[in-house]
Amino acid sequence: MKSMPLEGRCFIAVLLLAAIIPSSVGAEGRFFARAGVGPAFPSLENLDNELAVQGNEKVDMGLSIGVSLGRTFLEDQWSLEAHFSAAFYPEFDYKAVKEDSILEDFPGKLSHNNFMLIGRRHWRTEARWLKPSLGAGIGYGITSLISGGGKIGALEALGVFRVESAIRDNINLALEAVYHTGLQKKPFKNAHLENYESDGVYNSAGDWLEDKYDSFDIRLGITIWLKQRWPE
């Protein structure tokens, strides 16, 4: 039987922690689900530099999607959530040349997904409009440069500022600014493949292309409360 992929195990661990830790606090809380979508502005320094050497533009703005499942505690002032996000970017040409021999020639299809555990502080929890929150998270992210290969798997951190306003008793409209940053710099290769040497991505100097994923995302979405507010 095939073992579960690392990203699947990470997501299950994050989900379990999000459910267990708030319960151990012993305060009233409620569950919620969130979803949002919006533009993503990536920053991969080494990839952008290599594209500049090749005479290409850096990676363009993409689309970011985020979903969360979590629980509040301490009278909705704090929350903990399991978070998944994915980002997709426009295709670009990648061609690295060394001594007039082509090392790489493929369409770049940059994408990213991660699994995070996010803790968040909420203010103005009694208000109906403009309820701000500030959160930080840590987790595992996968950045793919080629469809099916050329991957980075690394630890990541996240910071997020969100403002919400109620549009119904159990539904909030949410606008958030999210900053992802990679905590590890790794080469674009897939160590899970047998022949990962041929799966790796090289730069114009003939070396592994190493990088870390950073991105600033803006998302508009909704929060759905899965039960009524904690009792007075």
Biggest sheet: strand arrangement: 1-2-3-6-7-8-9-12
Number of helices: 3
Mean pLDDT reading = 83
- Termini distance? 50 Å
Q: State the CATH class.
A: Mainly Beta
Q: Which range best describes the helical content: under 10%, 10-25%, 25-40%, 40-55%, 55-70% or over 70%?
A: 10-25%
| Shape, per Cα inertia axes | elongated
Under CATH, the topology can be stated as Porin
Q: pLDDT below 50 for ≥5 consecutive residues: which ranges?
A: 192-197
Structural class: mainly beta
SSE pattern: HEHEEEEEEEEEHEE
Tell me how many strands there are.
12
List the helices and strands and how they pair.
Blueprint: H1 6-25, E1 31-43, H2 45-53, E2 62-73, E3 78-88, E4 92-98, E5 101-108, E6 111-122, E7 131-146, E8 149-168, E9 171-182, E10 186-187, H3 196-199, E11 210-211, E12 214-225
Antiparallel strand pairs: 1-2, 1-12, 2-3, 3-6, 4-5, 6-7, 7-8, 8-9, 9-12, 10-11
